[in-house]
Design goal:
mainly alpha
């Protein structure tokens, strides 16, 4: 009896096929995160400038 990999895939093969790349999952939120962080940083820098001045 021979083993047919098409009928019974290896567990590692299934895991590799279903793996989610971390970079690909982050790319979708970059257009929202970068402006939000930029706005927060501008606010904080302005607050520091007013406080110091």
């Amino acid at each position: 009896m021979t083993h047919d990999p098409a009928l019974a895939p290896n567990a590692a093969d299934v895991e590799a096929a279903e793996a989610v790349d971390a970079v690909e999952s982050v790319v979708n939120v970059i257009p929202v995160v970068i402006p939000a962080v930029g706005a927060a940083m501008i606010f904080l820098l302005a607050f520091i400038a007013v406080y110091v001045g």
